[in-house]
Each structure stands twice: as structure tokens, then as C-alpha cells.
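Hi all, a correction to my earlier message: I attached the wrong file for LCP family protein. Here's the right sequence:
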Amino acid sequence: MAEPSGTNNPRAQRGKHASQPVGKGNPRHSQPVSAPRQPRHSQPVNTQPALMGKQPSDTPLLSAGEMNPYSRSAAGSDYAYDRRRKRRRRVALGVLAVVLAVVMGGVGMAFAYISQIESQLNDDISQETLDSLEPAAAYDGGTFYMLLMGTDGSAERSDSEEYAGDNFRSDSMILTRVDPENKKVTMVSLHRDTEIEIDGYGTQKLNASYAINGPAGAIRAVSQMAGVPISHYAEINFDGFKAAVDALGGVEVDVPMEINDDMAGGHVDAGLQTLNGDQALILCRARHAYDQYGDGDRYRAANQRLVLAAIAKKILSSDVATMASTIEALSQYITTDFKIGDILALANSLKDIDPSKDIYSAMEPTESEYRNDTWYEKLDKTAWNTMMNRVKQGLPPTEEDEVDELNGTVLASAGDGSGAAGDDETGVQTASGTGTGKTFSETRTGKVTIKNGNGINGCGAEALERIEPLGYTADASNANSFSYDETVVVFDTADQRVYAEELVDALGCGRAVQNKDGQYMYEGDFLILIGSDWE
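and the right structure:
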């Protein structure tokens, strides 16, 4: 749906509470597992054979026996993570302390300095947030995904009567893939109005995941939507953003067009210039300056990535003392699970990165929809799957740069377009406590149940052929209904997601779905339910 332009654009006139939770509607799975939902047809659920092609049902009951007896835990060592050891690049705190001791004039002072900064960085992290991340050891040079979040919190807002009692909201989210070994960084901005389902709250917007469940809710929502394990996160508020830029003495940015946006804080000239903290924040907050061009959030997200790339360029070209002082300034406003030694090790690995060539960027593809007096962004699943498959392969999210010809804003950057190693080649840092990567080069063990839910002859057999190289034991049969629209790969536990995504890649369509509420019952370790989107 195309957006209205100019002053008649309803999106440009939304109130400050538009992105708060829409309400406590019915959740997606509103009935308890022990009481299956009623099927469309008249037969009672308990009289239906389980997906054997005899009776249709909305609820995919795949086995009349016990629910999924072949969990990963039952498989034992068969599902031990296949890991490839990376060269350790971590800068030990002791080495860092020596450097800082020279700068600061004392070993004791250096350790106290490190401890203070680290405490500030990690102080506000809840156990729930840590549990939502894929457990990972100290940074070791491997590829990983992290979520960057900017919140609308600031001292000014905290002291303001206008915002009294408000929860801070996630004003921006950027899913970031970091490949230090190949010196590549990919940033994919996520639309805050993306329509999602939140258990217990029904249909919501993506940034409501933060307002409702904090960082943990946002991490879980993005990981599920993107189909990647998120190992780290960082959250910064408005004050912190300004402080970071000012600590660096400003950052050089080629501003695409003149910004006049009182709601974002004021004016910024067009052209190449050094922005201070206030100017950088105006550029990163401006939406209404783009009302005549369309969706202001898309332009704002592009400018945020532009400024972040400029910050990264300046930090990575700084000396140790400047880098340390910047981290100190940031530590007052940023919350992250990273330790200071890991941050500096990562910075050291990415030193010499060229933002114009090595930082890829884009925004999640969506279509605007206006209903019930509220704007939503509907995820374009086909385009999103294409984009994320490219990201996982180490390629830019888009095949080429996307630039708005009217105002010069770079909406997507393909860098040099060369790409690097994919997740299955470099290994993605995930759960094991060792920090080593995941590789798919080894033969799999375990069982996959395949059900044909679209009624097209031969789909099950074709799916068997596509996943055969992975080595799983698999069987195929008909589902209890041929009315399934979407192909899904169902898994039970969070640590199985990466394997489910591998199955999705092998199939060439569909998405991975975690069986959180016991909706799916099946024998084996994974279920492939083939829908009408089968290609």
C-alpha cells in the first residue's frame, strides 16, 4: 500500500503513544495445550487419525502417541554441536590493563578503570535478557549476530511531565551480522511498526516487544523473525548517542538533504560536514522531513545506519586512549552483555575496515497497511526470506545499492558487492560455552518427519531428496489436511533453530517455527510440513 505524501500523510501525524502496545488481545495460541482447538470440520479432534490423510483438521496433530518423544535431549550426543575452532583474537584484560597503565600512570588505576567501565556496561542487564541470548563465550573472532537497539530514553524525557510514567520504547532496532575475520558488517534495520504476535497480547508492533517484555522480548522477537541466533545485544539512549559523538570530537557525514524537523530537534545542513552530538541526533531522529517522499521511518533508518558507519569509522581509526575514553563516555548510557576486553578485541579485529566497501546495509522489506486507525508494516515474507538468505551467505542484503533519486538517501548499500564467507562456512557463534562456530559440513543424525500438506503428488518425495545430503533419517507421508498455506520446519528447543534453518535452506522455501506451545505433535527431532508455497 502506497503511503499518502505531504501533510496529508496520516503516518506523519501519529501521536507519541502510537507505538505502545495495541492492547491485550487474544494471543495466537489462546487455548491450553491440553484442550486442542476445535477443527473447522465437524469431527471431534480425538477421533481423527494423526495427519495420515484421512480427516482434515486445523490443528496439526501428527501422532496419536506421546508428544515428540525424540527431543534433542533424548538424542544425546548425536546433536553435540559441530564446532570449528577459530583463532583466538581476544585481548586479555591483563594486556589491556598494561596499555591503560601506561596511559593512566598506574596498574591499579587501570584495573579500577576497567572494572568501573565494565560495571556500567553490564549493570542493568537482567537474567531474563541473558537467557534470551544464545550463550556464547568471550569474543573469539567468529561470526556472530547482535541486536542494536536505540531507546527514546533521556534525562530530558525522564524529567518531563509530558512523558511522566511512560515506559521507554525501542525507537530503532538494527539486526547486525559481524564477521571480523573477513572484516564485514551487515546492518538490517527493522521497522518498529512491523506487525508481530506476542503471546498474551495478540497482534502488536515490533517495538511493543520491548515495551512489554524489555530487551529480552525484543531479542526473542527479532531472532524468531529473522531465523538467526542472536548472541549479543547493545542498547543506547538518546543522551548516550550524543555523548558518543561528542567524545569522538564529532563525526564526518555526507548529509543527503537539508533537514528541517522541529519534532526531531531542529536543523541540519545538507552536504559533507562534521556533525556534533546534537546534529547527529537530529539526523537520526528526523522522520517528518521526509513526509513528501513517503515512509519517514525508512529514511530515518537509513540515516541511522549512515551515522553509525561514521561513528564506527572514527572509533576504529582512533588510538587506544581515544577508544578507551569513548567507551568510558558510552558506558554511562549503554547497556550490553559485552565485556570491555571483548569490545576492544572486536575493535582490533575490525580495524582498517572501509565502511564504503565493507559495511552492508538495508531495511526489512514491508508493505504499509492502515487499519483500525493504526499503521502497521506487514512483512513481505518472500522478499524477507530472500534478503536473510543473502545475509546468511555473507552477501549484501541487496544485490546493488538503492538510492532515492529525489533526495539522495542511500536506502540500501551493497558495499563492494563481493560478499564473504557464509554462516555455514565461517560458523556462527552460538550456544556451547566455547565460543566456537557452528559448521554444517558434517553428516547429521536424528529423525525428520515430513508431511505433505498441499496435496500435490510427489512433494514429500522431493523434500526427502532435498534434505538427503544432510544425513537425517526421514520419512514422508500425507498430512491430515491439504489446506496448509505455508511450509514450516518445526523444532522444539532454541538450540535446534540453527539446524531447522539449515533444513529450510535445503528445502529452498518455508520458515523455521519453534514448537513453544505444543501446537505440533510429531515423532522425531524435526517436522517438515509442506504447504502450498512449495516450489
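Sorry for the mix-up. Residues 1-10, 12-105, 157-169, 430-442 have pLDDT under 50 and may be disordered.
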